[in-house]
Amino acid sequence: MLYENIKKLRKKSNMSQEELAEKLGVSRQSVSLWETGQTQPTIDNIIALSKIFGTSTDEILGNPTGTPSQGSPPEKKKKLIWPFVLMIIAAAAIIVATILIMHSNRSSGQETEEQSSSQQTDIARDPKTMPIYETTAPGTTQEPKVSTAEASATEPVTSKPVTQPPATTKEPEEPFDLFEYCKEFAIKIGRVNGDYVIYQQPSTKYGGFEGEYFSITYWGDSDMVEFCLHCPLSETFSINFYLKMRGGFNHKYEWSSSRYFRDTGESLRFAWGYLDPSKFSAKRPLSCSEYIGSTDGQDDFMEESRVGICDLIKCLKKFAKVEKMKCDWSAFEFRNF
Q: What is the pLDDT of residue 83?
């Protein structure tokens, strides 16, 4: 398969995904998508791969059909025999289970009868249940004497009022404000840069990839906390992935991605939308509210954005643990990560 051949040849050449992506002029996420079979490289990229690996394009593309091995007929016979063997085993298991259940029912019935008989015998022998007679003179009638235990049971019981302790009322705890906590966290450990405060570290500190950076920023003018994964592609281009949280966090994030020129900041492709953290997963596509850029390659850019946002969420999860944040990961509500 194409994706298996790319991964095998890359490892054979002792190259990481980042190194191969840099040689091709693509993002690390694109190489990852090729090697997992989610997308395929273009013809130009396949030709470039053959030159980098020093091999032919046929070897990269591989043999799509393949040839059957001489051992096929015996394997087919084995496949035909196995269902019968499994049916025999299943039938034997059902018979054994039936016998055990019948035996268990009989044993439980006998035990129930024995217990009932034993209980009746114990009741008959219990002195508390038998009347007590006194010896009287001949010709007189013997009257049953009520035992002390029975007499005391018939006497009226007077209950004393129970004094209940005074009820204590607890003041309701204020709900945890995730936005305010992240805002104060950025202000406390970040550095001021104009109208925003930013804290940035290599993403490897939070389980990310070499050469990428993770940051948390608070924008004072817009009352917004922004998590970012910054991915340099070359000396000319970079791609960034963002998750934005506004004041009064309403259980929804804004996401965006931008491929841009590093020297001017001018964007080649840009997309943004909203994301429900309780439903979003690594297999769920991003819902795009706006896309800016060439329509040629738009689908590839959106898939690249999905992978980048997933990488950012994974870094954010590790960030919350490493920095020992007051809240646990569940406060961010990404249930599928």
A: 62
In a domain, 152, yes or no: no
Asked if residue 85 and residue 19 are part of one domain, the reply reads: no
Q: What total of structural domains would you count in the chain?
A: 3
Average pLDDT, integer, range 27-52: 87
Quick one: 277 exposed, middle or buried, by C-beta within 10 A (0-12, 13-18, 19+)?
middle
Mean pLDDT over 15-23 rounds to 88
Distance CA 117, CA 271 (A): 81
Does residue 160 sit within a domain?
no
On whether both 201 and 325 belong to a single domain, the answer is yes
Label residue 164 by pLDDT band (50, 70, 90).
low
**Does one domain contain both 262 and 326?**
yes
Classified as helix, coil or strand, 271 is strand
The full DSSP string for 166-225 is PP-PPPPPPPP-HHHHHHHHHHHHSEEETTEEEEEEEGGGGT--TT-EEEEEEETTTTEE
Range of the domain at 22: 2-61
The verdict on pTM exceeding 0.85 is no
Structural domain contains residue 126:
no
Closest by CA to 241, choosing from 249, 231, 233, 232, is: 231
Residue 300 burial class via C-beta count within 10 angstroms: exposed 0-12, middle 13-18, buried 19 and up: middle
For residue 69, give both structure tokens: 């091995």
Largest pairwise CA distance in the chain? 128
The winner for highest mean pLDDT among 24-33, 76-85, 115-124, 283-292 is 283-292
Supply the mean pLDDT for the chain.
79
Query: Which residue shows structure tokens 């996401």?
Result: 255
Q: Grade residue 113 by pLDDT with cuts at 50, 70 and 90.
A: low
Residue 279 lies in a domain: yes
**182 and 112 inside one domain:** no
